[in-house]
């Protein structure tokens, strides 16, 4: 990270974006402009440690607003763009895909166009050094059987409105590299978890429900597999790709931590029982609920390329990362309490209107 000191980060008020911005500002002293529309998933309080730091700036704007993105780049004059703004929740994409098309596809198009115009106006040295990092997901590859893992050569096979919109954005990003020479880097990562994770995703939702003695919803049979990546490991990977990745290349990022959903939920219960004992074991709260439509069975990433070529390795195991995550939520009620009370209380999202049937309690 020696060369890149001025970075524009979209989605910087979200879960991964805010972790990246905290890392860039607090560890590297980088100058950062956050561009974020502050949707339900964005929260400036996630950046409170950066507010007032020299070089930190925030612009509330829609990434799909091409004129605003052009102006932001001309005024801030970044050496790199890290594009993380997205609608990110599969269940919400099932309930309504329009915001996913707008932000993930039209928004990525606008960011690529704004970056291309801005870069064309730079002198030769700055033009060569400029980077556009497009942050994507392993969900673009579809669903795996019991064996095997996704890597950079895996064929695209998106199956949810969310993953289809991300796949479209990846294709646009690569097209801007091949057609216009924009120095694009694409990363496809597995499921992240850690501090400041909006409590709609499995780990923070279950953690907070368990803390409040509420049912812990497990979709289907709980046998779906995800490959968990601690968010700070992911952020180090993104910084590594920005600094040393080869333009035009893709890097798959994963934590080598596959778990079945039921295992994850049970492990959260056990860590909480140890750190904050309750009258009844939290596992008694586990409740199997109707499955997500089109639920991908298994994701797993083979991160050999980024490990071998760029020397990045995940530092956290799922056990150490989960312990850190649970402790963070126990210590930071100021962050999640208002979100649970004012934005999203944990009700089920993304079931077809007629598809509800009685939940089957396990305990
Ligand atoms: P998030 O939902 O926590 O945050 C998204 C951020 O984008 C929010 O701050 C939101 O306000 C902002 N945003 C949404 N629409 C916008 C718009 N039109 N203009 C400007 N800002 C807008 O998401 P996240 O989990 O931090 O994910 C970040 C990126 O990483 C996304 O591109 C996502 O697809 C990708 N990703 C996430 C995961 C994961 O496990 N969370 C896994 C793989 C890939
Ligand atoms: P999620 O956190 O929504 O991430 P993604 O769908 O992007 O993988 O879900 C992770 C897994 O957990 C997925 O298989 C769906 C499942 N899940 C539940 O079983 N219960 C829940 O309440 C949620 C939100 C997810």
Q: Looking across the biggest beta sheet, what order are the strands in?
A: 3-2-1-4-5-6-11
CATH fold type: Rossmann fold
Residue runs with pLDDT of under 50 for 5 or more positions: 354-363
Briefly note the structural class of the backbone.
Answer: alpha/beta
The ordered string of helix (H) and strand (E) elements is EHEEHEHHHEHEEHEEEHEEHEHHHE
Give the distance, in angstroms, between the N- and C-terminal Cα atoms. 51 Å
Give the name of the CATH architecture. Answer: 3-Layer(aba) Sandwich
Could you name the CATH class? Alpha Beta
Binned strand content: 15-25%
As a percent range, the share of helical residues equals 40-55%
Q: Please name the fourth-level CATH homologous superfamily.
A: NAD(P)-binding Rossmann-like Domain
Query: Whole-number radius of gyration?
Result: 20 Å
The count of domains is: 1
Count of DSSP helices?
12
Topology, number of strands: 14
Present as ligands are: nicotinamide-adenine-dinucleotide, thymidine-5'-diphosphate
Oligomer: single chain
Given the C-alpha coordinates, what overall shape results?
globular
Largest sheet: 7 strands, parallel
Provide a short characterization of the protein structure:
This protein is an alpha/beta fold. It has helices at 15-28, 66-76, 90-95, 98-120, 124-129, 161-180, 202-211, 231-244, 261-275, 304-310, 318-331, 333-342; strands spanning 6-10, 31-36, 56-60, 80-83, 131-137, 184-189, 192-193, 216-219, 225-227, 229-230, 250-253, 258-260, 286-289, 360-361.
